[in-house]
Write a structure and sequence with these properties.
Number of helices of chain A: 14
Largest interface: A-B, 35 and 34 residues
CATH architecture of the largest domain in chain A: 3-Layer(aba) Sandwich
Distance between the termini of chain A: 76 Å
Strand order of the largest sheet of chain A: 2-1-3-4-5-11
CATH class of the largest domain in chain A: Alpha Beta
Shape of chain A: elongated
Oligomer: homodimer
CATH superfamily of the largest domain in chain A: Response regulator
Structural class of chain A: alpha/beta
Chain lengths: 348, 348
């Protein structure tokens, strides 16, 4: 209610009243919709949203009302990535005199209504979202209020309609596998991520291309799908290492999966890298703390977050009424540490 | 300026004018001080702060102005603890309909003026600070505006004047060492944290007490001070393992230091736990991902953060003008995993 009153004060009753009249609802209903409250029937909300969307309302309101906040919304704060992404957004926010509001959307799939309500009430300068699929309704709610948003999408499955930042997964898979080929490995296993994530498939394709360019066969027995977590890495590595003709090297698809591979090797008294080479993916901080330190593909998570926050700032300053659709894809690079070595065993 | 104008509107000119008159400054100067702006000379600011502090101003202003935000301020977002603490505060914030604003104070020692300025402008429900030493000026600024604050203090060096949450470091050191004694170890090394941190000393004293209770001598040669990071663990473990009569077990003082011990052992072809038992401290997520998974002392970081945020909520609802000084110390507990085993070697 307080927020609704401030609308009136700051924007003048006329604009709000015009929206109400055009939508055929009361001023207080328009105010409720603007503030993202849920006690408005869906058809009414849709009608008001459409009028807001079509009206000049949003252009006149932005600068006067926004708070020096950047919203950062995660599905879950569990990932080893989260802190790197937070630090990237925090850096750009600080440089722009803004603070970061952190929200966990709390649902495993698409974010629920709670977080968007908070965002609409706070009126931040912009929103950085760490997940791929954004419901159409959420996009419209943000757009009608001129709140720019950018998706950080490490899964590599961007919505063409939404500005997003990702990284080069195919190239990462290629670089990891090439490195192992150059060390003389011929039987190279891969544990990529879940089969339904595009980034898993891109890394796998990079692996296959590196083998093909080296004239090596791609043995389907050596390809496994994990879960990007330690447990998946351990289980799939156990399967690979127990093959009749086991691999001499494993590209583990993520650093957590690589830790699982190290554990599977330890339980079989295989020394890494002497008996088995292991390459991770991500280069999160624990990659260098691991024993041995992981050779891995560096995914520039902090820079991806900085890029997303900077894209927000650019979107804000755009004069255009339509958001500028942008896709930023940052390069990945191989970091060679202690978990890979020359191959000492060839075939059976 | 906008914020200053809102002061006038919401509180009425009279209250602000009274403060100005009593301090002998202009209303706009009072407004600047209230908003934490730095373009006010220090003596003037101190004078206004004192009047604010003594006046009934704060009691009349709190409820009307606060935003549904909890501020969480870190020195640096680098620690492996940070995410656990964020998640704890986030949980309590969500349950109270509030969002978390995350700020990195950006200085290694005491926090600088930038963050307090932002806090005073945003007027959150409260502030959770992750560091021990809070300047007197900051305390006064928060108190005069009735913004409650609680310190999460894993270093174990609480300011008696400030509500804080810590954990039982001495008991943690005792439990870690007792576990090794029970496994038959007689030469037990310790790598505690920096010598100037109370939590390092408390853990070391717990270690000494456990040895003493078991009738074992405390060999000063087996006591080392680290840095709580991987590098310190690696370096100090190398010193211990290269002794003429090396330890059969090391209490590593932190999980990161324990990872360093694992690496020092690997480089000497010592198998953990077969040839060397290792106990960490903290139980951050990577402790269970390590190979072997770390036996460690669980420091309930998430619950400490929840406790701090709940304490904030309690402080808010207090009628008392003076903040309630509180110290919450949560229990630590030993988590036995794969990095410890029965001692197989006894002395020379």
């Amino acid at each position: 209610m307080l927020q609704g009153m401030r609308d009136d004060e700051e924007l003048g009753r006329i604009t709000l009243a015009q929206v109400a009249q055009e939508a055929g609802v009361s001023i207080s209903t328009v105010s409720k919709v603007l503030n993202g409250r849920r006690d408005v029937a869906a058809p009414t909300r849709i009608k008001v949203e459409r009028v807001l969307d079509e009206s000049a309302y949003r252009r006149t309101t932005r600068v006067a009302r926004e708070a020096p906040l950047i919203e950062l919304v995660f599905h879950e704060l569990e990932s080893v990535w989260a802190l790197e992404l937070i630090r990237g957004v925090e850096k750009v926010a600080k440089a722009n005199g803004a603070s970061v509001v952190l929200t966990e959307s709390g649902t495993r799939q698409a974010p629920g209504p709670e977080w968007i309500e908070g965002v609409l009430q706070r009126r931040p300068r912009g929103v950085v979202l760490v997940f791929s699929s954004l419901p159409a309704e959420v996009k419209q709610q943000l757009r009608s209020r001129s709140i720019p948003f950018v998706v950080i999408d490490p899964a590599g499955d961007p919505d063409p309609d939404v500005p997003s930042v990702g990284s080069a997964n195919w190239n990462g898979g290629l670089a990891a596998t090439r490195h192992l080929v150059q060390l003389g490995h011929r039987r190279i296993g891969i544990i990529t991520g879940p089969e339904d994530m595009l980034c898993s498939l891109a890394r796998l394709d990079g692996y296959r291309s590196a083998l093909s360019m080296a004239g090596l066969p791609a043995d389907p027995e050596l390809v496994r799908y994990g879960d990007f977590h330690v447990e998946g890495g351990r289980g799939r590595a156990a399967e690979l290492l127990d093959l009749d003709d086991p691999p001499t090297a494993i590209f583990a698809g993520s650093d957590l999966q690589a830790l699982g591979v190290l554990e599977a090797a330890r339980l079989r008294e295989l020394r890494v890298p002497h008996d088995l080479s292991v390459v991770g993916y991500d280069d999160v901080p624990l990659a260098q703390w691991s024993s041995p330190a992981l050779t891995t593909v560096h995914q520039p998570l902090r820079q991806m977050a900085e890029g997303a926050a900077q894209m927000l700032m650019r979107l804000r300053s755009e004069e255009s009424e339509e958001p500028v659709v942008t896709r930023l894809e940052l390069a990945t690079s191989l970091v060679v540490r202690q978990s890979t070595a020359e191959c000492r065993r060839h075939g059976r």
